[in-house]
Design goal:
USP; four-stranded antiparallel β-sheet; EC 3.4.19.12; 23 strands; eight-stranded mixed β-sheet; 23% helix; cytoplasm; 374 residues; Cathepsin B, Chain A; binds zinc ion; alpha+beta; globular
Length: 374
């Protein structure tokens, strides 16, 4: 990779260009015609400059850059037809960044512009202090969704229950909801009259408890999340049949499984002022993670998931360092992304006690292409 160069853009000029780009008419043309000749072996293998404690950001960007259908959506220019021009700076900056990372021309690019536009809305991310990569991921997914969502006429959801809670965004779809959004259903039963009610919750990241201190499996974390819980004392529910507060049991299930499921392992244990990081060895399968025990029987269409990216957190609560392991769509090999450094790694090295976010997909990825007509 020594032949490739380091890209050092004039950030503020690019920010101006970005604003100009947003004022242009939508077009299905790829963003830059001169980018036809790229070296496929390097596509998607581009380091990210550390801008001062921005490894939390870089690790997340690398994982998103390995989601082929997401990358293709931006590379092909398809996103411009859905883009909300008033609210599209973050999505446009993301598109430019994905394009740079998939050119194959640079060893390393700077995420400065992306960081600046995110920082305009969330100033926390401009600080030169370490942030939580899970929070950053959720901000990015939310912003991309807000910029790219399309409202559809409300479909009649063919559910027999009238107790489903639905929020308006359920009818808004975007590339983010199509790839990452799942639905949880909470089945709540009053222990007095055994009346059942259901509550729906939308998720893009599932935060899993870690049930053991030294080692456990991802399946044990999932069992812990989906086990039946008692609702007593302050957590009692108001039962509509009994008309008063009652003890109840609640059990969560997946009502709609997303194509990509992201697990957040709750390593940062905060109870009041007591904080610590759990360094539990969590064994996670690389292939065929079976979510069917947690999915409603009716919706178990593609319950087997394969790992394609990991965000790692090394070190302790404050500070520490983030890296990413991502599977490269073209070579099908695993790479370690440590800011500007990229190195190939064996599958046997994927399992570490630093794993913090796990990205699984229930479908195989094809190499993202820029232009469907081409
Ligand atoms: Zn009741």
């Amino acid at each position: 990779m020594a032949s490739r160069s380091m890209k050092t853009p004039d950030d503020f000029n690019i920010l101006c260009l970005l604003k100009d780009a947003l004022s242009l008419e939508s077009s299905d043309e790829p963003m830059d015609e001169s980018r036809e000749e790229t070296n496929p072996q390097y596509q998607g293998l581009t380091g990210l400059r550390n801008l001062g404690n921005t490894c939390y950001m870089n690790a997340v960007i690398q994982c998103l850059c390995s989601v082929s259908p997401l990358v293709e959506y931006f590379l092909s220019g398809k996103y411009t037809t859905s883009l909300d021009k008033e609210n599209g700076e973050i999505a446009t900056a993301f598109a430019y960044l994905m394009n740079d990372m998939w050119l194959g021309d640079f060893d390393c690019v700077s995420p400065e512009v992306f960081r600046l536009v995110i920082g305009e809305r969330y100033p926390t991310f401009l600080k030169k202090a370490q942030q939580d990569s899970q929070e950053f991921l959720i901000y990015v997914l939310n912003e991309l969704h807000e910029a790219l969502k399309k409202s559809s006429k409300r479909r009649n959801q063919g559910t027999t229950s009238t107790a489903w809670e639905s929020r308006p965004s359920a009818s808004e779809s975007s590339i983010i909801t199509r790839l990452f959004e799942g639905h949880l259903s909470y089945d709540i039963m009053c222990l007095e009259c055994e009346n059942n009610t259901y509550k729906k919750e939308i998720f893009t990241v599932l935060s899993l408890p870690i049930p053991y201190e030294t080692e456990c499996s991802l399946e044990e974390c999932l069992q812990c999340f989906f086990q039946q819980d008692m609702l007593t004392w302050n957590n009692q529910i108001t039962c509509s049949c009994c008309g008063t507060k009652r003890d109840a049991v609640v059990k969560a299930s997946i009502a709609k499984a997303p194509k990509m499921v992201i697990f957040h392992l709750k390593r940062f244990d905060c109870q009041g002022s007591y904080k610590k990081k759990l360094k539990t060895d969590i064994y996670y399968p690389l292939n065929n993670l079976d979510l069917s025990p947690y999915i409603y029987p009716l919706f178990r269409k593609n319950p087997k998931y394969n790992l394609f990216a990991v965000v790692n957190h090394f070190g302790d609560l404050d500070g520490g360092h983030y890296t990413a392991f991502c599977k490269h769509t073209i070579s099908q090999k695993w790479y370690n992304f440590d800011d500007s450094q990229i190195s190939e790694m064996p599958e046997s090295a994927l399992q570490t006690s630093a794993a913090y976010l796990l990205f699984y997909s229930n479908q195989s990825f094809s190499v993202p292409v820029k232009n469907h007509n081409g």
